[in-house]
Amino acid sequence: MKPTLFLHIGTHKTASTVIQDALDKNRDVLRAAGLLFPATTRGLFPELPKHDELFQTLVDPDPSAFEAEFAAFMKEYEVSGCKDMLLSEEALSEPRPEAYEKLRRFEKHFEIRVICYLRRPDFFLESLWNQRCKEGICKVPVGPFSRSPFNRERVFYDNILDWWSGFAKVEVINYETVKDGQILDSFAEVMGYSFADAGNPVRNASPSAQCALLMAAMNRQGIRFERRRMIAAFAGDQGKYALGGRLRADLLKDLAPHLERLEQGYGVRFDMEMPDEPKIPLTLLNPDICAKAVATLL
């Protein structure tokens, strides 16, 4: 029987940072139990305990980049004495099948198991917009962001999972059914390996909706900001919804066939209760909220 290669593919905004931090802290414990969590220091973000270098080499048009990374993983695996291996990178949940086809190189050595957490698509796009604003990448309000073709493809969950199912066993978990503070228990159960002690997990703090909208405006103007200070300044703002009732309903209506296939094929069904919010998407900054936040920065 082949050893197992676990591929934790996210998705984004499903506590991946908490999981990766726990994997990093428990690296020696997991290795002693027979599971290798390889080095995460070769990528663009060596300070983050995830395999972003794997993603970078997969999307690199030069095939030798992935071959070198594949060889590095296999060398580390062979000297580790471990039975199984786990790679974690939430960008692997993006709709890039042509790039990810290279991962089939692992089939010769492992049974591949994909672990994927999913959020309701409207909440996912809203949270991803929030994250991209914080990262300095997104320059537009949530409406245009959620309508972009690539971002819409991100929430064709059934299509993405069908591709992975072509060569891997796929474990899909509805993130919204995982109780607060129990994501590591959920992940350990799926893996079949336990964490000894995750300590105080590092969390990926999200800005409020108003904070994210201000960040998008600053990104458009090329104004740099310190993320943590900005988020802390808006701590008194509890608003987290930005899509608006009308756009949210239209989005879910458009995705209904995909959500039906997701339930039929993977057993994931989302609670479709709608949040209390204005009908139109968030496009205007609230002067009172922003004034209070800016005052704390002065």
Brief descriptors of the model:
298 residues; 14 helices; alpha/beta; five-stranded parallel beta sheet; globular
Write structural notes for this entry.
By secondary structure, this protein is of the alpha/beta class. 48% of the residues lie in helices and 9% in strands. The chain contains 14 helices and 5 strands. The longest helix is centred in the last third of the chain and has 22 residues. The protein is globular. The mean pLDDT is 94.
End-to-end CA span: 62 Å
The helicity comes to: 40-55%
Largest sheet: 5 strands, parallel
| Rg value | 20 Å
SSE pattern? EHHEHHEHEHHHHEHHHHH
Note the total helix count. 14
Widest sheet, order of strands: 2-3-1-4-5
Note poorly predicted spans.
none
Portion of residues in beta strands equals 5-15%
How many extended strands?
A: 5
The mean pLDDT is 94
Structural class: alpha/beta
Topology readout:
Blueprint: E1 4-8, H1 16-25, H2 27-33, E2 35-36, H3 52-59, H4 63-80, E3 84-88, H5 97-100, E4 111-118, H6 121-134, H7 142-147, H8 149-154, H9 157-165, E5 169-174, H10 183-191, H11 209-221, H12 227-233, H13 245-266, H14 287-297
Parallel strand pairs: 1-3, 1-4, 2-3, 4-5
Helix pairs in contact: 3-4, 6-11, 12-14
